[in-house]
Design a protein that fits this description.
cell shape; 5-stranded antiparallel sheet; ligase; D-amino Acid Aminotransferase, Chain A, domain 1; disordered C terminus; Dna Ligase, domain 1; 20% strand; EC 6.3.2.4; alpha+beta; cell wall biogenesis/degradation; single chain; globular; Rossmann fold; 4-stranded antiparallel sheet
Length: 322
């Protein structure tokens, strides 16, 4: 498309979630990229302005660079559906399911897609005996995290039973649902998926080598100590199998536009286990989707333009019959 054909574009960034800081970095990069391509793009922060202003000010498309709750969970998507403004990324239902790591696991398991075993604890309902029982079921170390946060916010790798209660309580302070997940030791990889339905495809897999294996919030966004290997260095058959698996996982959730799925490969069996999906991935200087796209010969600016071109609505309003 000619960049002018997109009309007036809002880059939604910031928002109300715990990932606001990252979202502002992502949105700033996207905004600059779109403007450099000649798109009439403007920053729009839903934490500071009512979404109804999008309609009043004549915006014709939205690039969603929001992360986490109130941006990646179907709420903004639903508002844009009502306003009739096409937007990037997955629709209402796929966004709502994908933001919830437990619901995502349930769908994947129903479809035979491998994901680590887990226990769900609910704020206000668990007691000390239930918390202590998690390592007995899943083993140690165990991963404890809020079910609906991203960017590794609130994630803890618990290596001792004595530390379980504090980790669960810390996650429960961020989310009513606490996901306790079997730890899979091995290679950590991620794979972006652009496209919709049968047109969805996997970009090159990235292997992540973080300091001491700790790919936390700090090592994701604010240090240069983490190594990102693309080409990933996995055997060709392994990478091809992972790319095929993540596309299947993306499709069964009903995702569209783009996404990124995180995977652990068991060191002993080489079996991949899918951890979670991001339906509004980061677009910062440390982010993984632009890195993988670049390995495919797609620049950051062209990637932003291509994603904007996929903006759509779940529901097409019917015209009244005369």
């Amino acid at each position: 498309m000619n960049p002018k054909d997109f009309g007036k574009v809002a880059v939604l960034m910031g928002g109300h979630s715990a990932e606001r800081e990252v979202s502002l970095m992502s949105g700033g990069g996207v905004l600059q990229a779109l403007q450099s391509k000649g798109v009439d793009a403007h920053a729009f922060d839903p934490a500071e302005r009512e979404l109804s202003e999008l309609k009043r000010e004549g915006f014709q498309r939205c690039f969603i660079a929001l992360h986490g709750r109130f941006g990646e969970d179907g709420t903004v998507q639903g508002a844009l559906e009502l306003l009739g403004i096409p937007y990037t990324g997955s629709g209402v239902m796929a966004s709502a399911i994908s933001i919830d790591k437990v619901m995502t696991k349930r769908v994947w398991l129903a479809e035979g897609i491998p994901t680590p075993r887990y226990t769900l604890l609910r704020r206000g309902s668990y007691d000390a005996a239930q918390v202590a029982g998690v390592p007995a079921d899943l083993g140690l170390p165990v991963i404890v995290k809020p079910a609906r946060e991203g960017s590794s916010i609130g994630v803890a790798k618990v290596g001792a039973l004595a530390d379980m209660q504090a980790a669960v309580d810390a996650s429960a302070a961020l989310d009513a649902d606490v996901l306790c997940e079997q730890f899979v030791a091995g290679d950590e990889v991620t794979c972006p998926i652009p496209g919709t339905g049968e047109d969805a495809r996997a970009l090159p897999v990235i292997r992540i080598v973080a300091p001491a294996g700790n790919y936390d919030y700090q090592n994701k966004y604010f240090t240069d100590d983490t190594q990102y290997l693309v080409p990933c260095g996995l055997p060709a058959g392994e990478e091809a199998a992972i790319r095929e698996l993540v596309v299947k996982a993306y499709r069964v959730l009903g995702c569209r536009g783009w996404g990124r799925i995180d995977v652990m490969i068991d060191a002993a069996t080489r079996k991949p286990y899918l951890l979670e999906i991001n339906t509004s991935p980061g677009m910062t200087g440390h982010s993984l989707v632009p890195m993988s796209a670049r390995a495919s010969g797609i620049s950051y600016e062209d990637l932003c333009l291509q994603l904007l071109a996929t903006a759509a609505l779940d529901q097409v309003k019917e015209t009244a019959q005369s």
